[in-house]
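Q: Got a minute? One more chain.
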Amino acid sequence: MKRFEIHRGGEAGHLIVLGGGSAAFAAAIRAREYGARVTMINDGLPIGGTCVNVGCVPSKTLIRAAETLYRARHNPFDGIETTGELKSFAGLIGQKDALVDQLRQEKYLDILKGMEGVELIQGRGRLESGVSVRVGERLVTGSHVLIATGARPSVPPFAGLSKVGYLTSKEVFELEEQPESLLVIGGSYIALEIAQLYTRLGSRVTLLQRSERILSAYPPEIGNVLVGYLAEEGMKIVTGNRIQSVSEEKGRILVRSLVEGELRSFRGDRLLVATGRRPNTDGLNLEVLGIETNEKGGIAVNDALQTKAPTVYAAGDVLGERMFVYTAAYEGSLAADNVFGPEIRKREETPLPWVIFTDPQVAGVGLDEIEARQRGIDAEAAVLPMRQVPRAIAARETRGFIKLIRNRADDTLIGARIVASEGAELLMEAALAIRYRVKVGDLREMLHPPT
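A: Always. Here it is, folded:
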């Protein structure tokens, strides 16, 4: 992306931050290290943003709870008898709420209280100029502005959807009663994680995916193997959907969909729409400064995270690109560095590790062999089924595989794709090897604990 004029802030200044999530907090902390004042303006989700309130924290604690119940009911070892029962769905949700409150307080609010020179304003901010933001009747003026307003669930305009009480990834974690049956529209990571956890808690889940396979943005072998595991647990997965209408019938949700040319009807007590996320750019008054959005609806920035307005930067999910809490924190910190630091730093295009927290987990970093060959790289892939890994055999958990992709020309690792119960933990050695261009031959010579 083309670079715009660079406008520096000097040794100190005043950063106005729109947002209250990971990117916003990382920017505030780094700006204070440079001695700058910070005014944080937050609206919508409580302080902490998506991750702590409606994303990482609630989803991962409920995923682990559902896994605990599932493991208790499906013990693979002879001579050991275990049972599991969900005694109180409300109790489980209450524990999740307590954890969210605790982490929001400890990781965000307490940090704010301990930071001098930082003011928090609750309200919706609107750009007035490149250095000023209006919040209600108040005009806040600083030296720079960072837009870190995050993203929200994207809901397609299905006929009749607005007339029924559908759920998004926000409301689904706030249910006080467990639905006996749940319809899920979507087939990517959010839809799959939530669908599996509710299946394991005992709901009858039907997942309706538009594409011909789940995880359609990933190599086919990933979705093909995962769909079998999910079906074994009782999840019903229907691909190739063209949703025609959504309505309510006798207190239940009715979804009519064209599947392979046939009109089919699906019924459930509740409906979750998990079809992606969209950046929160509405009402920011971007047009007053000529700030553009990209093809994904996110704010367009250069490689220093600067918008077309020289004093306005953007970071995190509002960019519409890498919507992960760790990339948001990195970008928020980088933006503050580029405003107040001694030199301009470009956003690094290092291999991005990613994990889908289904069970087994799906994890990846770098290029797959198809992407590599499209870039003219002579790539070779090696696949190791988990059923051939002694540690997995001993644990009686042999679902999935490990695929490593190397560049034949220089023997460097360039990618990894993993489907395994501990895929996230397995991933990081590959990520480090790719980042620092470690030879595959050198990796082979390293000593590893029993695997």
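A: Residues 1-11 have pLDDT under 50 and may be disordered.
Q: Perfect, thanks.
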